[in-house]
Design goal:
This protein is an alpha/beta fold.
């Protein structure tokens, strides 16, 4: 078998190796809809042929939707047609979607039912778009994905791509400023898919929970499953996680810390009534769970410890869109829970003035039509400046201490990382969300108390905890002002708080 280099090859290799095995499992209308690797490849081929019949040359094709057989068939159909996928956040507002459609030079859009009403706006702002395709059903004035597949059924697309060809443009949700289009090649995606050994994943099930336009979800859940022969179980809503965990009984899940924390709190509450923690874990995740993988933000060691008490291992990794995304992989039964995992194979890491720099085959080609930001982020010799502060140890584990752009520099010259302070409260039940920042040279904390937490005086409990944490810090790092909020902070699609909007 030829060395794996492209996403098109990944789809075909998966068909050859795992043909009749289940690749995608969905629960729709109280019935399971299972799609094999072979059926998936055939759908991708049909879509690819249709695209090649209607476009010449390299074409950018956008997708706006949630995880489903239809969405993934369209995504990889674009790849099998040797073109460029542009996955956009379906939860973004229509104006932002229109902006990214325009800036990505997309000429065709696969779209979900949610945004059909926004097509007049898209047509006004994006006159370059030639086709709108509904992912789920026939709709007046649009093409339908099912018709495209039927029209070209049994046909095979022409051409091929190389590992250096652009595969996708993924917009960073961005906690500050305008989103940037990260250009990832076929080689970037493939390197990040195979940068960790296949640890007997074949035949296992993973419940995919996170937004599909997010590279953490796409690489870890989808690409990794194609490579290893795993079944992707589709969670249709964040509100249905508990139901779908019981329904699919996966061996693996991928979470962001906020989801992990929310589920842990519910298990801890249940444990007050039923002291059998193993039973609670089985009731929550099913009896087949091997491990949970967490990424997207820092996971407190206290949360890892909390899951351990229920007999569940949660492994923390680290990465960023610009690195496809893995820089570190989560380690099951990690001996160093303070770390963000072990640096993946083929990735070099060095610390420059406290900032983490990385170099690997997974590092992006640059930002689409944004040479200035590309130059600010990539060095001429290929090092990616992550913007994260941290250090590594002799065993290859990486540790994050904060974000460079968030660093508070006080008038006395002291440098304070707000994340270092915030992480001390990550597992503190009365606090739902917290942001620490500099307000006129005073360390200030805005706090959104957990509305579900029962307390006679929740603010008093929180202030007591702040006093306890302050006692562990030198004076420069102590919280002086506390502001309580009555609503959540504004967040990105990956549930990261947008610090520039903390007063909204």
């Amino acid at each position: 078998m030829a060395e794996l280099k492209t996403l098109k090859q990944l789809v075909y290799d998966a068909d050859r190796q795992f043909s009749s095995e289940i690749f995608i499992s969905e629960y729709i209308g109280k019935k399971f809809r299972n799609t094999s690797f072979h059926e998936f490849r055939l759908a991708c081929d049909s879509i690819a042929v249709w695209i090649q019949k209607h476009f010449e040359g390299k074409t950018h094709i956008a997708l706006v939707g949630t995880t489903s057989l239809e969405y993934l068939s369209a995504w990889f159909g674009v790849q099998c047609s040797c073109n460029v996928s542009v996955p956009l956040d379906t939860n973004n507002n229509p104006e932002n979607i229109a902006d990214e459609l325009a800036r990505s030079d997309s000429k065709m859009v696969f779209i979900d039912d949610k945004h059909v009403r926004d097509i007049p706006l898209f047509k006004e702002r994006c006159p370059q778009i030639e086709y709108y395709v509904h992912l789920q059903k026939p709709t007046e004035g649009m093409l339908f994905l099912g018709d495209m597949i039927s029209e070209c059924e049994g046909q095979t697309p022409d051409g091929d791509v190389t590992e250096n060809d652009l595969a996708a443009i993924l917009f960073t949700s961005g906690t500050t400023g305008i989103s940037k289009g990260v250009m990832l090649s076929h080689g970037n995606f493939i390197d990040n898919t195979i940068c960790c050994p296949d640890d007997n994943f074949h035949g296992a099930k993973v419940l995919t929970v996170l937004p599909i336009h997010h590279v953490f979800c796409f690489t870890i859940d989808i690409l990794h499953s194609l490579w290893c022969g795993m079944t992707v179980c589709v969670n249709d809503s964040l509100f249905h996680i508990a139901k779908n965990l019981k329904l699919f009984e996966p061996e693996y899940c991928t979470f962001v810390p906020m989801i992990a924390s929310t589920i842990l709190v519910k298990m801890q509450q249940a444990a007050k009534k039923i002291p059998l923690k193993k039973l609670i874990a089985h009731e929550t995740f099913g009896k087949k769970l091997v491990a949970i993988f967490s990424g997207g933000a820092y996971l407190s060691p206290e949360i890892i410890k909390g899951y351990k008490e229920f007999g569940i291992d949660i492994a923390q990794g680290y990465g960023m869109t610009e690195c496809s995304p893995r820089i570190c992989t989560g380690v099951v039964n990690c001996p160093k829970p303070d770390s963000v995992g072990k640096i993946v194979n083929g990735c070099e890491v060095r610390i420059v003035d406290g900032e983490i720099w990385v170099k690997s085959k997974s590092v992006m080609q640059g930002y689409y039509k944004n040479p200035e930001e590309t130059a600010n982020t990539l060095t001429p010799d290929g090092w990616l400046k992550t913007g994260d502060l941290g250090y590594k140890d002799d065993d290859g584990y990486l540790y994050i201490t904060g974000r460079k752009k968030n660093l508070i520099i006080l008038s006395n010259g002291e440098n304070v990382s707000p994340e270092e302070i915030e992480n001390k409260f990550a597992a503190f039940r009365p606090i739902k969300e917290m942001v620490v920042y500099d307000d006129n040279q005073v360390i200030t904390a805005q706090i959104y108390p957990d509305p579900d937490y029962k307390s006679k005086d929740i603010q008093a409990e929180i202030r007591k905890k702040i006093d306890e944490v302050n006692d562990t810090f030198q004076p420069a790092k102590r919280i002086v002002n506390v502001i309580f909020r009555d609503k959540e902070f504004v967040k990105t699609a990956s549930r990261k708080i947008i610090r520039a909007k903390i007063n909204e």
